Amino acid sequence: MDRFAEIELFVQVAETGSLSRAAEALGLSNAAASRHLQALEDRLGARLVERNTRRLFLTDTGQEFFSRAKTLLADLKDAEDVVNAHTLNPTGMLRISASLSFSMQHIAPLLRAYTERYPNVTVHVEAANRYLDIIDNNIDVAIRTREFEPDSNITVRRLAQTRRILVAAPRYLARHGRPRTLEELAQHKLLIYTYANNPGELRFTRDGQTTALHVKGLLESNDGQILRAAALDGMGILVQPTYIVYDDMVAGRLVPVLDDWDLPRLTVNLAYPSRKHLSAKVRTFIDFMAEHFVKMSYEQKWTGRFGVN
């Protein structure tokens, strides 16, 4: 077995924590994988992996070698992807992370067109309403609504800005009345997204005036689709980014409330590991999403007003 294959096996062992799972991933028998790992340790003259009856773990030397070996394999993959990019034939698994709402409304509807254009790419969508660590979770592209990433190894590309907006079902407003002031809003049943920044406080701005309103929700959830369903059912007034409720407003299922006030806006971004050469699968997906957002004029739609208060 050549050196590259030995290193690839070792990295698989380190990442899976199992020799058998590593062997399965590489199409080897357990006995062959064990021989290859032993050959690597013999060649290096160092113990990389310790085993007991319950688990497998890396030695200190193994941990250091793993860090460098993983980088080596990533660089080699980048080199291969550069060639792949030139041929415009992206391949492999593309791992995307986004909130459930964004995944359902703005990724899932595009997957057929993307995979038809690039049939050798397999897509994995990790729907999560919290921000997964991109590097640790092997995410290729994440959709985020924050302006910057704390990790300098992550590149951020802006897609569109969106307002956050108050909306309610017509039947809720018919039953409870439409609030005309922020004071009246405080008396209504609110549906609150708990992963928002400071969800118990809404900061409204109009004509240069900012007013903070402390709120408590009738229903609180960490998932926007649960709150949207509750709003459509007439349970209360929903606070969400326009990109989640835009189609409902166009159809009249939800109507804006106090639309002359602004809440802090969000920016929808693509975030991905910074590398000199992006893999073809990542580059094509980023370009595909950016082109679609421009074509659909999402920023214009999501930052506009509906003229109903």
Q: What fraction strand? A: 15-25%
DSSP helical segment count: 11
Radius of gyration: 25 Å
CATH architecture of the largest domain: 3-Layer(aba) Sandwich
Number of strands: 14
Largest sheet: 5 strands, mixed
Broad shape: elongated
What is the count of structural domains?
3
Order of secondary-structure elements? HHHEEHEHEEEEHHEEEEHEHEEHH
Mean pLDDT reading: 89
Helical residue percent band: 40-55%
CATH topology call of the largest domain: D-Maltodextrin-Binding Protein, domain 2
Biggest sheet strand order reads 4-3-5-14-6
For the termini, the CA-CA separation is 71 Å
Give the CATH class of the largest domain. Answer: Alpha Beta
Spans of at least 5 consecutive residues with low confidence: none
CATH homologous superfamily classification of the largest domain? Periplasmic binding protein-like II
Q: What quaternary form is this?
A: single chain
Give the helix/strand class.
Answer: alpha/beta
Topology (SSEs and partners):
Blueprint lengths: L2 H14 L2 H8 L3 H15 L4 E3 L4 E3 L1 H27 L5 E7 L1 H18 L3 E7 L13 E4 L9 E9 L1 E5 L1 H7 L5 H4 L4 E4 L7 E6 L2 E6 L4 E3 L2 H9 L4 E5 H10 L3 E3 L8 E8 L6 H16 L2 H6 L6
Helix pairs in contact: 1-2, 1-3, 1-4, 2-3
Write up this protein.
By secondary structure, the protein is α/β, with parallel strands linked by helices. The protein has 3 domains: 3-85, Winged helix-like DNA-binding domain superfamily/Winged helix DNA-binding domain (Arc Repressor Mutant, subunit A); 90-161 and 267-303, Periplasmic binding protein-like II (D-Maltodextrin-Binding Protein, domain 2, 3-Layer(aba) Sandwich); 164-264, D-Maltodextrin-Binding Protein, domain 2. 43% of the residues lie in helices and 24% in strands. The protein has 11 helices and 14 strands. The strands form 4 sheets. Strands 4-3-5-14-6 form a 5-stranded mixed beta sheet. Strands 11-8-12-7-13 form a 5-stranded mixed beta sheet. Strands 1-2 form a two-stranded antiparallel sheet. The protein is elongated.
